User: Fold this.
Amino acid sequence: MKSAIIYARYSSASQTEQSIEGQLHVCTQYAKANDLIVVDTYIDRATTGTNDNRAAFQQMLKDSGNAAWEVVLVYAIDRFGRNSVEVALNKQRLKTNGKVLISATQRTSDNLDGTKNLDGILLENVYIGIAEYYSAELSQKILRGLRESRRKGQFCGGKIPYGYYVTDKKVQVDEEKAEVVRFIFRQYAAGVYVPKIICKLNEKGLLHNGKPFLPNAIYGILRNERYLGIMRIRDEVYDNIYPQIVDADLYEKVKRKLIKNKIGSRSVKEVYLLRNKVKCGYCGNIISAECGTARNGETIRYYKCLGRKKHHNGCGKHPVRKEALEGLVLDSVIEAMQDEKTMNALIKGLMQMQDANNKEKTTLKLLLKEKKQTQTALDNIVKAIERGIMSDSTNRRLNELEQQARELDEKIAVERNKVAFLLTEDDMRRYYLTALRQEPQLLISTLVKEILLYDDKMVITYNTPLYEGSDDDRGFSFYEKTLFLPCTVPQSGETTLLPIQTVMRV
Ligand SMILES: [Zn+2]
Assistant:
């Protein structure tokens, strides 16, 4: 006679669900008919099938490590996990602990007497597949149901926007708050700034979810299409769930203003390619990126020495136009990269970096080595057993090694996935020659170390071995290049910068 426990779980995910009591009854009958003594029961009564934590199940798996019982009896195999992978893994854990999984209603891969059941193995997968199918079908049904409810104009959960409330699955307008929403829309449409709108709301003592209105809340309201009476869920549009609070003209006006303000404001960042890279050749101060407005209203962006800013008698370095300076530097970097030797040195450095980054691979090598050693030890034990050397300790060792081998297999699978896709030299070359040119910011931030800027020249220092004839293996060293600039013509403190000639001096 073998001892067994019964595991029962009720999940709403299955269409043909058997109650806990039903499962227990069938399992008990099976135990009686098959000479099993039921010593314990583990029951999960959770009602949701896909995200419950199944405390009793976890406890049962844990207990299987040192409990005396031998068999886990379930009503159906899908009790054992939420998908076939989970079922397989959990079954494997039981097996590791020397326990057998038996279903009272389905043929399983293991028989009670320890023999294998080949058609059971096949069937097991079919049963699990069917359970998965039902679970997926139920999700479909739920989605279909939700869609149907929405079509009927019913509220189906989620956050209710300010100005609405729900009764009997129907969204209703909270007239008092709706008036506040309209007020916000009208104010914004009239050109009142959001902080000012908030002041006005505060003066009226109005709250948003119990707290004073914040800018994000205001923008959230201004952008919420539900106030127009429209709700979008993925590709579906519903106009029958939310009653309209703001009329279409006002909504459109606000929408246009939001877009316009977004383009004109700081939210669209002007990229200064050389930010933090340029220093003044005269005073050593940082040359910072700034922007101003010309008399004709045009925005001018330029780089200006910080030493000039501070005092009247500060640095005399003239500011330079952003576009002109950046263009010069970018041309110089791209030109430097055209040189074959330079490119080779660069690729060499990058390959070295990749190798260093790819040290992860050594973990995999170590694991494979360990697996090999474990396998050898396993083979030796098996040979010993074949020769008749059989004791408690050889048995224990065999179990240990088998467990170890399984754990290693899992770790190896994980590492194999981790090993990054490696770039070849050709890949890198292509990348640098094409993609990086379209991403000047990346190009400059990786390759340019520093730029010393004078009024008549600049000295570019590179991060990489970008010099001709570089054969040494130092990897990353520095290289300088001086570009001579046209004489500056200061006009009301502003300088145009045009390249006349570029001279290279190493
Ligand atoms: Zn300066």
Notes: The chain has four domains: 2-138, 164-264, 278-341+436-484, 359-418. The pocket of zinc ion is lined by residues 280, 282-283, 285, 305, 307-308, 315, 317 (CB under 6 Å).
